[in-house]
Design a protein that fits this description.
It is built from 5 helices and 4 strands, in the order αββαααββα. It has 133 residues and is an alpha+beta fold. The protein has one domain. It has a two-stranded antiparallel ribbon with strand order 1-2. It has a two-stranded antiparallel sheet with strand order 3-4. The radius of gyration is 18 Å and the shape is elongated.
């Protein structure tokens, strides 16, 4: 496995940045109830990061991402984030309220960026070595 920012195309860079944003989202508030809040680790949503494993692993190994698997991972992240946000919404005194914080929104954006990155990704190619120079 190799971190090779310089040789990654825009899709590879997007995948990596999206994964970093997803990890950062776990540190932000996922639930806000007035003065009380909980981050993604306290909520157990760190398991959502599993959708980033396959694309990031293929990126680091400089191997192609199977399009259906990559799209499935990104779509899974989007569905998980929307489902989480919807589960933290309800009605109180006849008004619709949401207790979801910034964390699931960041994760949703990171998952959408993952989808864009998977669609644009091409594995990095090693520069040719010169023989007999």
């Amino acid at each position: 496995m190799k971190f090779d920012w310089k040789n990654w195309n825009v899709g590879g860079k997007t995948i990596f940045v999206a994964a970093c944003v997803a990890v950062f989202s776990m540190l932000t508030k996922w639930v806000e109830l007035g003065p009380m809040s909980a981050n993604g680790f306290a909520q157990g949503t760190f398991l959502f990061l599993g959708v980033f494993v396959y694309p990031v692993l293929m990126l680091m190994k400089q191997r192609p991402i199977h399009r259906n698997w990559g799209i499935g991972c990104a779509a899974g992240g989007i569905v998980l984030a929307i489902g989480y946000i919807a589960s933290k919404s309800g009605e109180i005194f006849g008004r619709s309220v949401s207790f979801a914080g910034a964390g699931p929104v960041l994760f949703l954006l990171a998952s959408a960026a993952l989808l864009a990155g998977v669609l644009k990704y091409q594995p990095a190619t090693e520069p040719p070595t010169q023989q007999g120079a």
